[in-house]
Amino acid sequence: MHWASWSDFWAMGGYGLYVWSSYGVTALVILIEVILLRRADTDTRRRLKRMQQWEEQ
Q: Which residues fall within 8 angstroms of residue 18, CB to CB, at 6 or more apart?
């Protein structure tokens, strides 16, 4: 596709709001997923460490 100006690019032929909000929502969901995965990883590592310490006793 060829756009005559940056404003045409951002407007996306009248579908700019849909296109850019879709990108935004997707980026937000991916960010939330990364945060939740890191939190789960941290919790799992803590739990495993506690289990190891309990077995050593």
A: 12
